[in-house]
């Protein structure tokens, strides 16, 4: 019998640059292994390559195919030391080459939106941050308003363009700097469950 649970999709990224092992995908796979521990939803995870063209095609397909309650993109940041909850994303400034040596010709994510458009998630990241920081776990969180103008920002804007009320982005630090994969997964679980509360109660 088909599941009646709404789907929550969590994506990580493949390797790029100095991140031959991308902490985001490792943490997301660990989250899948350990589960969200939430009976209200069905968790799906997938890995996105660090390629603009593929992300531009894949993200809308995920939304269309699965009609998820929530999509959370997870990426690694070499400067992060905690879970970094991104509140917004940008449409322009994508001039950094992906792993295929490409970037968007217009340096924009969505062509039919204003170049300078900034989309803000309807999910209150301050509430999510408080939930993580008061959960009694090792991982701590902070809120950010700049996802970085690379594939992280690009994927986030792609999802916010589709549903700005049901999309989120979380940056994680590299593995063991300072958190293990299991600790990152635990932090993601707390954060995502708090997001689910917000989107499910609307």
UniProtKB/TrEMBL annotation:
Alphabetical GO biological process terms: proteolysis
InterPro entries: Peptidase_C15, Peptidase_C15-like, Peptidase_C15-like_sf
GO annotation, cellular component aspect: cytosol
Domain of life, source organism: Eukaryota
UniProt keyword list: Cytoplasm, Hydrolase, Protease, Thiol protease
UniProt xrefs under Pfam families: Peptidase_C15
Residue runs in coiled coils: none
Family indicated by similarity: Belongs to the peptidase C15 family.
Name of the featured protein: Pyroglutamyl-peptidase I
Source species: Littorina saxatilis
């Amino acid at each position: 019998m088909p599941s009646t649970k709404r789907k929550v999709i969590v994506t990580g990224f493949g390797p790029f640059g100095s991140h031959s092992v991308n902490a985001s995908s490792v943490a997301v796979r660990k989250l899948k292994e350990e589960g969200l521990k939430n009976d209200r939803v069905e968790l799906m995870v997938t890995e996105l390559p660090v390629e603009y063209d593929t992300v531009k095609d894949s993200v809308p397909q995920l939304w269309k195919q699965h009609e998820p309650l929530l999509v959370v993109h997870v990426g690694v940041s070499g400067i992060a030391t905690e879970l970094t909850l991104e509140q917004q994303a940008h449409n322009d400034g994508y001039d950094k080459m992906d792993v295929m040596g490409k970037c968007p010709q217009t340096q924009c994510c969505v062509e039919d939106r204003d170049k300078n458009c900034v989309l803000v998630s309807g999910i209150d990241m301050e509430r999510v941050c408080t939930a993580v920081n008061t959960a009694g776990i090792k991982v701590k969180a902070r809120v950010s308003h700049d996802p970085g103008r690379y594939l992280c920002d690009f994927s986030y804007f792609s999802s916010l363009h589709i549903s700005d009320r049901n999309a989120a982005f979380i940056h994680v630090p590299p593995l063991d700097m300072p958190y293990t994969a299991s600790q990152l997964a635990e932090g993601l679980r707390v954060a995502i469950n708090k997001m689910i509360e917000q989107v499910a109660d609307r």
